[in-house]
Amino acid sequence: MNIGKQIEVLLVEDDPGDVDLTLEVMNMSKLKVNINVVGDGVECLNYLRNAAGYEDKLKPDMILLDLNMPRKDGRETLHEIKNDPALKMLPVVVLTTSDANEDIVRSYTTGANCYITKPVGLDQFTKIVSSIENFWFTIVKLPPKS
Amino acid sequence: VIEQEVQILMVDDDPVDVELTLEVLQTSKLKMNINVVMDGVEAMEYLLRKGKYSASLKPDLILLDLNMPRKDGRETLQEIKTYDNLKDIPVIILTASKGEEDIVDSYSVGASCYITKPVGIAEFKKVVSSIEDFWFTIAKLPANSK
């Protein structure tokens, strides 16, 4: 349980509609969740490595990663995270419209902690985000803050 | 997943925890086949189809305890993740250990998630049922070629 502590989530997503919905659901949570949003993999890695413009950012407790994004997509981003000794313990939940088995297998093989396809309806999307929150923030033990 | 039988490999040397887990999973609406082995040596024989496990099916999910005789969960996780044909199987660490080092090491080596076993029976069952809900209805698992 992570009750009391603020949970930091990094949402890597270029679709503004999905960003809004995710924020809406997580902001209704009983848990203290702080969500930072970046629009692609380049920004994500800059954020995680505290590059220029992100010097004061905390390491997230969890990363929600889309696969199809401009500049650097989620596949490449995941690969970089899981090959960086300073970042690879961060749980990465892939949240994408792709339900191709190739993406599923490749994501798990590259080290995704979990793969979830975005459902189409609003209610379904809300349910998925709140399930992620319940499972990862109340059942799972996340890595301790460094 | 709904039509197919779900294959779970549970690696745990505590008979009470095994029994409680089976009790919960066997009441599932999904068709589940749970195979139990007691330590990491047997887990690797099962996964690599050695000896009496020559006909074993590739699991969709592995529940892995950390503290076990002969080969513990830490070593087993590391070994699983060295095999290209096994590293896409999500491994859920389910252990009594709350050690920060165990948590960080497990995520770094590629555990999908880390869960500490709660003490009470009702709480333990709730955790198992959360694992089932999340991993078999929310998460997408690789299509299993068995």
Q: How do the strands of the widest beta sheet of chain A line up side by side?
A: 2-1-3-4-5
Instruction: Please trace the helix and strand order of chain A, writing H or E for each element.
Output: EHEHEHEHEH
- Give the proportion of residues in helices of chain A: 25-40%
Main sheet record of chain A:
5 strands, parallel
Q: Output the number of helix runs of chain A.
A: 5
Spell the H/E element sequence of chain B. Answer: EHEHEHEHEH
CA-based gyration radius of chain B: 14 Å
Q: In angstroms, what separates the terminal alpha carbons of chain B? A: 13 Å
Tell me the distance between the termini of chain A.
17 Å
> Count of helical segments of chain B?
5
Main sheet specs of chain B:
5 strands, parallel
Q: How do you describe this structure in short?
A:
The complex is a heterodimer of chains A (146) and B (146). Chain A has helices at 16-27, 41-48, 74-82, 101-110, 122-139; strands at 7-12, 33-38, 62-65, 92-96, 114-117. Chain A is of the alpha/beta class and 146 residues long.
Describe the protein's architecture and organization.
Chain A is built from five helices and five strands. Chain A has 146 residues and is α/β, with parallel strands linked by helices. The two termini of chain A are 17 Å apart. In chain B, strand 4, helix 4 and strand 5 (113-116) form a beta-alpha-beta unit. Chain B starts with 5 loop residues before the first strand and ends in an 8-residue tail after the last helix. By secondary structure, chain B is of the alpha/beta class. Chain B has a five-stranded parallel beta sheet, with helices on both faces. The chains are: A alpha/beta (146), B alpha/beta (146).
